[in-house]
Amino acid sequence: MITYPEIESVVAALGGRRLLREKIRSLGELDARVARGLPVESLHRVSQRFPEGERNRVMYIVTPRTTLLRREREGVLSREESERLERIARLTTLAEHVLESPAGAQQFLTSPHPLLDGEAPIDLAATDLGARRVESVLWQLEYGLPV
Predict the structure, then answer these.
(1) Cis, peptide link before residue 5, omega less than 30° from 0
(2) Which pLDDT tens digit goes with each residue over 8-58?
(3) Which of 9, 18, 126, 134 could form a disulfide with 5 if both were Cys (CB 3.0 to 4.6 A apart)?
(4) DSSP label at 111?
């Protein structure tokens, strides 16, 4: 269950009610929206939270460039792409909360980390287990646990 970032923070990162075209107040509602496919514009919104040089990297984690061109015509991501995008939005908002800075979150997410076998946290967002590893490191930082 999401404790932090609050669902509202993740929804806001994805473009909020305006982009998602509905009010999402619960994890179940977010899950249902992701299952129907998130708007391509949500991908652009989330990627804007990263430095310009990292935006393509973020977008490629969600979908390959050639597929993205097709998705832009359709206007909606597939379920699997939407799940990856939601993970990136969740990790981004959690990192911003824990590190108390968008710049610190960007640095953390895009740099290799020794506790993640030298991988950049953003790259691990491609899978659910990878995202869980990143969340674990962030929660350890948040609560001052030994890492």
Answers:
(1) yes
(2) 999 999 999 999 999 999 999 999 999 999 999 999 999 999 999 999 999
(3) 9
(4) S
What pTM was computed for the model?
0.91
Residues with Cβ < 8 Å from 116, sequence gap 6 or more? 124, 133, 134, 137
DSSP state of 15: T
Residue 112 near residue 119 (C-beta atoms within 8 A): yes
Q: What is the DSSP string of 36-91?
A: H--BHHHHHHHHTTS-HHHHHHHHHHHS-HHHHHHHHHHTB--HHHHHHHHHHHHH
Rounded CA separation 16/26 (Å): 13
